Amino acid sequence: MNKLRFFALLLAFAPALGLAAGGGPLESSGTDLSDKASLQRGAGLFMNYCSGCHALSLHRYSRIASDLDLEPAVVEATLMQGDANIGENINTGIAAGDGQAWFGKAPPDLSLTARARLGGPDWIYSYLKGFYVDETRPAGWNNTVFPGASMPHVLWELQGIQRPVYEQGADGMTHVAKLELAKPGRLDAKQYDQVARDISAFLEYVAEPAALKREAIGVWVILFLAFFTFLAYLLKVEYWRDVH
Question: Which letter, b or e, does each residue of 114-132 get, where b requires 16 or more Cβ atoms within 10 Å of its Cβ?
Fold first, then answer.
């Protein structure tokens, strides 16, 4: 097997193996794009907690209204900030220079994160659950999935504050073995899991909005192929009847 085929197989199976960028396992997000309520909650959470720094510049507010069965007036009242127009792309109010100065790196656009990261929504879900206090970091936080992340834990009031429990690995290096809740948040573990799942589902939808319609159409395609196969079988029986 040549190197090209090897790397192609690695890229194909890495999401299934649940590999994080930092080498650790990913948790299953359990996202469901057919769950419109989850996508609506995820949109609200993203706009309230994430959109101040992160843009979705490849997506429009009007598309959210159409795809998630939301009235444009509801989107304007609850999801849009500032003087944005519902037909505009979802941009952030933070300037790139300010992001660079505050976090050491301009916050990235998250339009395609669910497709760019190995593991997709599982990576996002695990990332949102993997923050812990780290006083050596400029922002005061670190992450088990993305070690050295510049992003502060904007959801800490919901999840609470986690502290790491370290262990020494076989390589002689110290690793984070697990995270322990040092200070509870407003939500319990199950409720916060749902928050992380809703945001992950929303970003999965944003990365490929057509997936909603594609999956719906796929059922009809399968039914058509099944019916066509049945017709082809009847035609084959009719042709071979004369041969025999």
Answer: beebbbbbbbbbbbbbbbb
**Structure tokens that stand for 16 in this block:** 């299934």
**For residue 173, is pLDDT > 70?**
yes
Please name the helix (run of DSSP H) or strand (run of DSSP E) that holds residue 37, with its range, or none: helix 36-49
Tokens of 235: 């035609």
Ordered by start, the domain boundaries in the chain are: 218-244
203 contacts: CB under 8 Å, gap ≥ 6 = 42, 46, 110, 113, 114, 121, 124
Torsion of CA 50, 32, 88, 99, to 10 degrees: 20
90-148 pLDDT tens trace? 988 677 676 666 677 788 899 999 999 999 999 999 999 999 999 988 889 999 999 98
Amino acid at 90: I
User: Cβ–Cβ contacts within 10 Å for residue 195, how many?
Assistant: 19
Q: Nearest Cα to 121, choosing from 30, 51, 195, 22?
A: 30
